[in-house]
Each structure stands twice: as C-alpha cells, then as structure tokens.
Inverse folding.
C-alpha cells in the first residue's frame, strides 16, 4: 500500500518514480506555474510533470530552484512535442527543454503523442539520450496497445512509462494489463477528467463513506490500480487536499464499483486521430 507522497514505484531499469506528482498542463507560464510548483514541493510533492508544448518549462525550472529542495530529491518529467518528432529534431528538443528548465538532466522524457509515422525515429533519439546518461528514464505518452507493439518490434530499450488519459470513465483495462505484462508503468493524466467527474453520484456516494472528497477517492483508486497519478492544480489548498489520500484504503468492492463506471469516454483527443504538428 502506498503510504506517503515520498513512496515510489521502481521502473524496470531500477529508477524510483514517485506514485504521485503535480501536473502543470494549462498552468500559465510566469508566477502561476512558479507558485504552484513551489507550493507542491513545499507540501511534500517530489514529482513535477511538464511538456514542451505547455510553454511553462521556464517557470517550472524557476519554481524548482526557488523551492529550496535539492535537485536529486526531485523527479522531473518533460515531453517532446509532435512537430519535433524525428531523430535529430528530438535531440534538439531535449536540449531546448533542459535549457528552459535550467536543469542538467531529466528524470523522465516522453514522446508526447504517437502521431503518424515518426515515433520509431524519435524513440531512437530517446534511447541515445538514455544511453548517454542524459536522462534517467524514457517513455511514451498516449500510446495505445498497437502503438506499443509497433514500437517494441524495433526498440532496443523498452519504454519505462506510458502516460495516458486515465480516469473512471476511461479505465483502459486492456492497456493497463498490457503495460503490466511488459513491465511498463502506466501513469494517468487528467485523472479527474478535468473536473468532470467531481459531481458523479456513484463517486460522491463512495466519498461520503470514507469521509473524503470525490477527487481524493479517484486519486486513491489510481494508486490502488497501480497507476501513477499527476493531478493538476494551481491552488495550494487543492494541491494539499489532492495529496491527502494516504490515510485510507478503498475496499475491493468499491474499486470494482469505480471500475464499473467506465464509458470509454475521452476528454482529450483519440491518439489514433491526433497528429497535430506533423507535416504529412
């Protein structure tokens, strides 16, 4: 059982990754992102997830520097955007992200979306960064089973993480099972379905039973499903509340009840259709 914000899952290469972190999608560059990163770290978070396309890497880096916590204690993730896919362009994109963040290395670097036809070249670049000791772990984001199968045909190094949209309306059981079989850690983005699940009557019912909020129940369900989770918030009170999930455990029945809410419904794009930024 995951007992604290410091608890980690061990990726297949031995690197430890926190089960819980802060996502900064749509958090504005400047004081908004700096303050949310500092608030999270101050309140015990050690994992921060950003991406080139969020256009807030500089603020994330500043928040990290101002947090007063040593770099080695933190786990920082960024992602290569669609228009930068390809071998050389990915290597360049990595340098750009590092420069913006003001860091010497990343803990995790991900291919943001599979796109159409370049992810194998992009993966070769991630493998090079990994072999050169520039990044501690590499992975993908928004990859379905068929994308992973295609990647694994030629990959020298298996992805350590697959970060996908994952919440009670999109439980992706087949993908979770495939990743677990392959030793790839699944990670949830938009675990609260961008707030759209917070009034769900079934979840409200379960939340009352545990004296917790719906958000806390969903985030606990992630962890008990062995899924890393990175809820986003810019309010310090919410950042603290989201992480207050280590003093209770959902019953097997309640886990099954939440699993049963699946509708295969996305709030983000379908990875098979989303090729934004690619020139065909």
């Amino acid at each position: 059982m995951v007992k604290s914000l410091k608890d980690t899952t061990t990726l297949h290469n031995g690197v430890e990754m926190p089960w819980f972190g802060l996502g900064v999608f749509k958090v504005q560059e400047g004081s908004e992102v700096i303050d949310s990163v500092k608030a999270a770290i101050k309140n015990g978070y050690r994992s921060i997830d950003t991406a080139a396309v969020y256009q807030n890497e500089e603020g994330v880096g500043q928040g990290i520097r101002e947090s007063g916590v040593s770099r080695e204690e933190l786990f920082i993730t960024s992602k290569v955007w669609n228009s930068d896919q390809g071998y050389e362009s990915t290597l360049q994109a990595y340098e750009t992200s590092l420069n913006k963040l003001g860091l010497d290395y990343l803990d995790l670097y991900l291919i943001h979306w599979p796109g159409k036809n370049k992810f194998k070249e992009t993966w070769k670049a991630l493998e090079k960064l990994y072999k050169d000791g520039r990044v501690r772990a590499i992975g993908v984001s928004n990859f379905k089973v068929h994308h992973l199968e295609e990647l694994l045909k030629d990959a020298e190094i298996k992805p350590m993480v697959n970060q996908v949209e994952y919440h009670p309306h999109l439980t992706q059981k087949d993908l979770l099972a495939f990743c677990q079989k392959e030793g790839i850690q699944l990670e949830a983005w938009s675990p609260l379905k961008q707030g759209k699940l917070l009034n769900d009557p079934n979840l409200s019912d379960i939340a009352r039973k545990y004296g917790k909020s719906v958000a806390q129940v969903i985030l606990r369900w992630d962890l008990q499903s062995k899924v890393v989770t990175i809820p986003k918030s810019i309010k310090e009170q919410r950042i603290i509340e989201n992480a207050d999930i280590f003093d209770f455990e959902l019953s097997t029945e309640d886990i099954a009840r939440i699993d049963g809410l699946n509708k295969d419904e996305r709030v983000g794009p379908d990875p098979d259709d989303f090729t934004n930024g690619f020139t065909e």
Observations:
- The longest strand covers residues 75-80.
- The mean pLDDT is 96.
